[in-house]
Amino acid sequence: MNKSMTIELADLHFFAPHGVHAEEALTGNEFKVSIRVTFTPKVTLITSIDETISYADVFNITKATFSEPEKLLETCAMKISERIYKRFPQITFIHISIQKLSAPLLNFSGTAGITYTQSF
Predict the structure, then answer these.
(1) What are the E-state strand segments in 5-111?
(2) Residues 80/65, Cβ–Cβ less than 8 Å
(3) Strand, helix or coil at 74?
(4) With CB atoms 3.0 to 4.6 Å apart as the test, which of 33, 38, 75, 99 could cross-link to 113 if both were Cys?
């Protein structure tokens, strides 16, 4: 019997200077980030934080990585994925979605973003 567990952090809000336009580095932007991390439990019943993925650690890794300015959201997502996997090598799959809540485009209404997935 195959089993898996997914830890999810949804709709995290960050303010950061990501973007290819020079003014984005100066003024920053609001972003919404969601992360799903899947792993195979090694025990029949998880009863300790050591037997799972700490969502607090996933949040702290994401927050620290997201604070580093990048031109591309793709770069942010790939770095977040790499750092989470380095901390939790038992991960089998990661899904990261990043939305820029106010894209600097003339007459644009909505959000712009990326989704990155990786299997390990």
Answers:
(1) 5-16, 29-39, 91-100
(2) yes
(3) helix
(4) 99
pTM, 2 dp: 0.89
Which of the four pLDDT bands, split at 50, 70 and 90, describes residue 104? Answer: low
In this structure, what token pair is assigned to residue 29? 């932007």
Q: Is residue 67 helix, strand or coil? A: coil
The number of residues making up the chain comes to 120
Task: Report how far apart, in Å, the C-alpha atoms of 89 and of each of 27, 38, 56, 86, 92 are.
Answer: 36, 11, 16, 6, 8
The answer to whether 91 touches 53, Cβ cutoff 8 Å, is yes
| Residues ≥6 apart with Cβ < 8 Å to 87 | 57, 61
